Amino acid sequence: MEEIFEQANAVLEEIKASAPTTNEEIEQFRIKYLGTKSILKDLFGAMGKLPNEKKKEYGQLMNALKDAAQSKFDELTQSLGQSKNVNKEIPDLTAPGFDVPLGTRHPLSIIKNKMIDIFSRIGFVVAEGPEIEDDWHNFSALNLPADHPARDMQDTFFLSEDKNWMLRTHTSSVQIRVMEGQKPPMRYVFPGRVYRNETITARAHCTFHQVEGLYIDENVSFADLKQTMLYFAQEMFGRNVEIRFRPSFFPFTEPSAEVDVTCFVCNQKGCPVCKYSGWVEIGGCGMVDPAVLENCKLDPKKYSGFAFGMGIERITMLKYQVNDLRLFLENDVRFLKQFVSAQ
Ligand code: DAH
Q1: Closest ligand 1 atom, residue 253 Cα
Q2: Percent residues over pLDDT 90 in the chain
Q3: Given the CA of residue 306, which atom of ligand 1 is nearest to it?
Q4: Which domains are delineated in the chain?
Q5: Which residues line ligand 1 (CB under 6 A)?
């Protein structure tokens, strides 16, 4: 009989001494002392076997046990709600966040965006055209005669037997699409991907990107073209660079020129980037050929304009001194993540 008292007292001590901390431990405490199959139930059950004179004392002990278990449980669950360290399963909302690695813009996108930004500041807006083109927009309307070498199988990825459909070889095709659809004044840049059937090397690829520019209005002059190219070169490569125009030929412009910039890497002292010439080429340009305007039903007596075309890869390679074109399409993060600070 004394035994059951001892047992109950031992449980009381056990309750007082127990210090569960995690959710799981507290739940076990509840099951053990307060649940439907708690050990207190067994101890209560022993009451019936006690002589009457002991029942009151035992009953009080049982109440003390129940109260101790209940108040311990209340205390524990309450402190769990208040303290962030008690329960390891509840995340610490005050802890610093995980370091999420940020992606970076592709170097070609960085330069493309920069080019668009530079031209948009002087009123050029962006337009785009399809990568699959027909002969008219890619060649004929641009004054490329049927026997022009650029049409050759060697350069162009034709998509149809009759050679009417192809992957565009330049973004000049978008000039035609825009001029056909609207009246001057128009001031556009056309960024986009182009394709040529070339062997892939460090310097050539079968796909690359261009930004084409077009400005058509009344009285647009060659001086406007020169000033626009100078403005672009200085915004892109630095205020102290100069430009030079070398006479050239493109079927869609007359006169035509190739544009060079003083080497911004060596300041014309001579370096591998400019191949010790002091100049680097950035693109082609010229006054839109009257035949091209006519092809787009614009009156060449009323309107004139200039156009230019630049390779995004070329500008990017110059700007960041990348010496292998293939790197742009390999998606090697060791290469790509070097341009984080550049954006
Ligand atoms: N379409 C030429 C090319 O892909 C680049 C070009 C040169 C565009 C002169 C022009 C231009 O608009 O005027 O090589």
Answers
A1: 13
A2: 64
A3: 13
A4: 2-84 (no CATH), 107-342 (3.30.930.10)
A5: 170, 172, 212, 250, 253, 284-286, 307-309
